[in-house]
Design brief:
By secondary structure, this protein is mainly α. It is built from two helices and no strands. It starts with 8 loop residues before the first helix and ends in a 7-residue tail after the last helix.
Length: 59
């Protein structure tokens, strides 16, 4: 009938990469560092939103 709920491994990877990018951006500093940190924060946001999304059910 319904498949098992898929795991959020992709969203966890995106969240982890965003955390690494945000941390690296803070270490670099300056305009480039702020850009990298913002890129990382966007990935953290989208990874978190992806984890909250309900999975589609297939027949």
């Amino acid at each position: 009938m319904f498949r098992k709920k898929p795991k959020n491994t992709t969203n966890k990877i995106i969240l982890g990469l965003g955390t690494l990018a945000a941390g690296a951006g803070k270490l670099i500093g300056g305009k480039i560092g702020y850009g990298i940190a913002g890129f990382g924060l966007a990935h953290i946001l989208f990874g978190s939103l992806g984890m909250l999304r309900s999975p589609l059910r297939s027949r």
